[in-house]
Amino acid sequence: KGELRIQSLTFDDAGMYQCIAENTHGIIYANAELKIVASPPTFELNPMKKKILAAKGGRVIIECKPKAAPKPKFSWSKGTELLVNGSRIHIWDDGSLEIINVTKLDEGRYTCFAENNRGKANSTGVLEMTEATRITLAPLNVDVTVGENATMQCIASHDPTLDLTFIWSLNGFVIDFEKEHEHYERNVMV
């Protein structure tokens, strides 16, 4: 296929490479530059969120995305406790930490550690739990005669420290109340 593979790259492999394709009708050239990147992990461009919110009983993913080459190995701690994969906690290959069935005991300071053969770095954020948002009154099926108006209700409970937004959709497509104001009307009750 005219493919060039280089195993176990070193800095000496960096440079301009040229592919030459030739047949009885002529010859063509293509050039490409190979840059070798090697750097210790750094969170300068993408630090961990300082505050992470998780819904009670829900699932949260805390991202850990340092810049590093080669790809670093990841570990996590909560406070001074080193975290390991278990039934509720999982450390993904990309460094993200997943916690399922979040409880009040999961609140605290989480630190992601990244290490490769060039160095190491870490970043910390605080996980806070919020009350889960729940639909307390769901819309009901409605039979309406053509030409009449229909009203559907949706009421939800939510954590008082967070804002709540209702999004309505029809057959999977979100309704734009500004564009379709002649047909749909949103009434927000406090």
Describe the structure.
With 190 residues, this protein is mainly beta. It folds into 2 domains: 40-130, Immunoglobulin-like (Sandwich); 133-189, no CATH class. It contains no helices and 16 strands. The protein has strands spanning 15-23, 26-34, 39-42, 51-55, 59-62, 67-69, 73-78, 81-83, 89-91, 97-100, 108-116, 119-130, 134-137, 155-157, 169-170, 173-174. The strands form 6 sheets. The chain has a 5-stranded mixed beta sheet, with no helix packed on it. The model has no long low-confidence stretch (mean pLDDT 92).
- Strand arrangement within the widest β-sheet reads 4-12-11-7-8
Sketch the major β-sheet.
5 strands, mixed
Question: Which CATH architecture of the largest domain would you pick?
Answer: Sandwich
Helix content: under 10%
Q: Could you state the oligomeric state of the chains shown?
A: single chain
Order of helices and strands: EEEEEEEEEEEEEEEE
- The CATH homologous superfamily of the largest domain is called Immunoglobulins
The parts where pLDDT drops under 50 for at least 5 residues are none
Write down the CATH topology of the largest domain. Answer: Immunoglobulin-like
Approximately what portion of the residues adopt beta-strand conformation? 35-45%
Mean pLDDT: 92
Please report the total strand number as a whole number. Answer: 16
| Euclidean distance between termini CA atoms | 67 Å
Structurally, the number of domains stands at: 2
CATH class of the largest domain: Mainly Beta
* Computed CA radius of gyration, to the nearest angstrom: 27 Å
Tertiary shape:
flat
Number of helical stretches of at least 4 residues: 0
Sheet/helix structural class? mainly beta
